[in-house]
Input
Amino acid sequence: MGWLGSLLFTTLMFVSVPPYAMLVVLSRLFGRRAAYVTSRAWCAGIVWLVKLLCGLDYRVEGRENLPEEPCVVLIKHSSAYETFAQFLILPMQSWVLKRELIWAPFLGWALAALHPIAINRQAGSSAIEQVVEQGKARLADGLYVNIFPEGTRMPPGETRRYGLSGVLLAQRDNRLLVPVAHNAGDYWPRRGLRKRPGVVRFVIGPPIDPADRNPREVNAQVQAWVEGKVAELRADI
Output
């Protein structure tokens, strides 16, 4: 459907936010898991709708690499697609996000009900400590902690230095790190209305044990694997 399908999808996606957000807020009265299940249902609906109207689907490789115990997941951030798909790909989770998202009407209320780790990105080292302390609490609650280490969506083929908070959280709480690469930015660009038809490939990498290692070296290893895998995925399109 091309442009028409993309326009219709985008319209329906935004129209769905207020009613679903209120459902998430109301379901929170029955506990955090109920709010999460409601949110996951909305994300599943969005993923289904973009497949129906834009011909965009996904597949996952490397599921066997995901530990059974909660861990810290570092995901490439190049699109809005992975923010929905992560609900369907990974177990019950919490996310690090900028606190400004919590202030938004409807969507922010729903996010707050899901108990994310909302940080002030301008706070420097104190923001990192916030991720570590709150992340440890989420992990203790049995949640996986998902982090976009670049901090913002990057255009396809681009990156920036990965933040250290994910590595430090994993080290201090004796958890594994799991890198996730994908090529969603080539199909659902961070700016632009049209969604390209195709199959987004998500690759879950082998877990990394950061114990007793230099955090920057671990971070460099994660970034090298993710960006190298993204380059491979993009070359196959």
